[in-house]
Amino acid sequence: MALSTRVVVMVASLVLLALVIVAAGVVSASPKHNDKEKEHPTTFTILTKNHDVRVVDVRPSGPSHGDMRVGNSTAYNASGTRKIGRIYYVCVLTDPADKSNEQTQAARCSYTDTLPGGEINIEGVNYRSDLSKLPSVNTDAIVGGTGKYVGAQGEVSQRIRGENVYTTFHFVD
After folding, report:
1. Rounded to whole angstroms, how far apart are CA atoms 5 and 25?
2. Fold (topology level) of 45-172
3. Phi and psi at residue 48, in whole multiples of 5°?
4. What is the pLDDT of residues 73-129, one digit of tens each?
5. How far is 67 from 90, CA to CA, in rounded Å?
6. Which long-range contacts (CB under 8 A, 24 or more apart) does 49-53 make?
7. Which of 82, 97, 122, 159 has the fewest Cβ atoms within 10 angstroms?
8. How far is it, in rounded angstroms, from Cα 30 to Cα 136?
9. Contacts of 83 (CB under 8 A, 6+ apart)
10. Where are the domains of the chain?
11. Is the pLDDT at 3 greater than 80, yes or no?
């Protein structure tokens, strides 16, 4: 084989080797998708009690756009035996059910749940008979967080039992 043919073969081999190395790097750097994790999101439940809540009635008097429910409460583990954090929230009345055929008010709510390892941010619309009362059932979106909850997504469902609120977090990728 002539010298120039050997050089061409060697250069072609080196180029092919470089392409294989680059392709392997791209594949290993690509995000991994685990469908099994998506089917089974991580969940946990907390209990909130000792609610400190105020309803702020803006003019005109009575239920009207812009009235607010502002509050905070203590978060406990699901059995209610250990304090684990605090919940802070504000709900703004967006539909005061001021028409004769309406019975349910709608409020846009924003929550920050401060838990071990970071905060979870939650947003959604809550429906209730009156801004001063808790909704009987509620589902909102997890829109982010801090610390170990950075980039958190999913949904939160709440069940009311007397004055206690059971909140279950369902995280997804």
Report:
1. 30
2. AOC barrel-like (2.40.480)
3. -115, 140
4. 999 999 999 999 999 999 999 988 787 887 888 899 999 999 999 999 999 999 988
5. 10
6. 49/73, 49/74, 49/76, 49/80, 49/163, 49/164, 49/165, 50/74, 51/163, 51/165, 53/132
7. 82
8. 43
9. 74, 75, 76
10. 45-172
11. no
